[in-house]
């Protein structure tokens, strides 16, 4: 089985939601078998704050989600390990465990107090996006792109603080103006944890060729998103491969990975409220073969058939594993 790495799976919110409703071990019951079946050796776990917790509840909710990750690690210590350095990742994988890297999907929990960034770093967070789709005190998300807003002065300070700490800056969900502001002032590589190619599917959550190239020039990587509407109007595994071909033509295979953003099961596990709007799950196109982590082993085989074994290994796990090993602090 080809080892796989995924730069974006919101499973923490699913696990916390089910535990709050009486489930004893939702990770062990569902997600762990899924990850093992998919050959996942490295998983970035974002902390996403639901709309009803934005504001003063954001810090509390994000800490509860981070605690959920540590609860999972304690209960399943033979299978998973939270990693904060590159060597941690390699030790976990070599020991047969899935390496977890903790991230924030949006900086609502930071507010305007940048010292909180240090607190998040102390509890293991190693990747942060300044925004989800909404506006934060640092920047505008893609849902506010019509404002033309760049980073705020606080956002510029936050970028410098994250670079100093060794927190990887994630530009997925950031408005295009905010993206180019980061490209202008960043001193370290920045990444897109779950974004695909706008040249192939004109969706605001995707990146233009110019943005892809800018990430490459900065020394970062792009992890492709497999959420159906971001791939094509009638999405399939073939469309993900097409996005992989396009991205690697611009960035090279060593800079393109997977950030799958599996929502098929999460939309059924969590109250269906995203961005303040009720969502009808059956109206969302979830392509066959791109629905859950167990599908990743077949995705890796399809990549191998289409691109060859070396390129497939880079996209499936090598790029993400190599870049995070390099970008995370040594100690």
Compact summary:
The protein is α/β, with parallel strands linked by helices. The chain contains 13 helices and eleven strands.
The total count of strands amounts to 11
Unreliable residue runs: none
Which class best fits the helix and strand makeup? Answer: alpha/beta
| CATH hierarchy: architecture | Alpha-Beta Barrel
What is the CATH topology?
Answer: TIM Barrel
Mean pLDDT: 92
Radius of gyration (CA) equals: 18 Å
Tally of distinct domains: 1
Strand content: 5-15%
Shape designation: globular
- Report the total helices: 13
Distance between the termini: 32 Å
Helicity level: 40-55%
> Which CATH first-tier class would you pick?
Alpha Beta
Q: Look at the structure and name the CATH superfamily.
A: Metal-dependent hydrolases
- SSE succession: EHHEHEHEHEHEHEHEHHEHEEHH
Described by strand count, sense and barrel closure, the largest sheet is: 7 strands, parallel
């Amino acid at each position: 089985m080809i080892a796989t790495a995924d730069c974006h799976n919101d499973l923490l919110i699913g696990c916390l939601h089910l535990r709050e409703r009486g489930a004893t071990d939702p990770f062990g019951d569902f997600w762990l078998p899924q990850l093992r079946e998919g050959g996942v050796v490295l998983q970035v776990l974002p902390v996403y704050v639901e709309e009803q917790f934005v504001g003063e509840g954001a810090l509390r909710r994000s800490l509860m989600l981070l605690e959920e990750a540590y609860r999972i690690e304690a209960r399943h210590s033979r299978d998973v390990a939270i990693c904060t350095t590159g060597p941690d990742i390699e030790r976990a994988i070599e020991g047969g465990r899935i390496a977890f890297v903790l991230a924030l999907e949006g900086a609502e929990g930071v507010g305007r107090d940048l010292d909180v960034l240090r607190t998040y770093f102390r509890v293991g967070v190693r990747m942060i996006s300044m925004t989800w789709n909404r506006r934060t005190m640092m920047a505008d998300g893609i849902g506010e792109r019509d404002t033309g807003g760049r980073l705020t002065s606080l956002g510029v300070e936050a970028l410098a603080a994250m670079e100093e700490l060794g927190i990887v800056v994630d530009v997925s969900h950031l408005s295009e103006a905010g993206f180019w502001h980061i490209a202008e002032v960043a001193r370290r590589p920045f990444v897109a944890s779950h974004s695909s190619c706008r040249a192939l599917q004109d969706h605001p959550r995707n990146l233009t060729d110019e943005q892809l190239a800018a990430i490459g020039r900065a020394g970062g990587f792009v992890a492709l998103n497999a959420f159906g509407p971001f791939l094509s109007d009638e999405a399939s595994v073939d469309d993900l491969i097409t996005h992989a071909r396009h991205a690697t033509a611009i960035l090279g295979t060593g800079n393109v990975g997977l950030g799958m953003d599996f929502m098929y099961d999460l939309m059924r596990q969590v109250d269906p409220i995203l961005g303040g709007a009720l969502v009808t799950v059956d109206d969302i196109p979830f392509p066959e073969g791109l629905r859950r982590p167990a599908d990743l082993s077949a995705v890796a085989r399809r990549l191998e058939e289409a691109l060859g074994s070396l390129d497939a290994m880079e996209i499936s796990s090598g790029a993400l594993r190599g870049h995070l090993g390099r970008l995370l602090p040594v100690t």
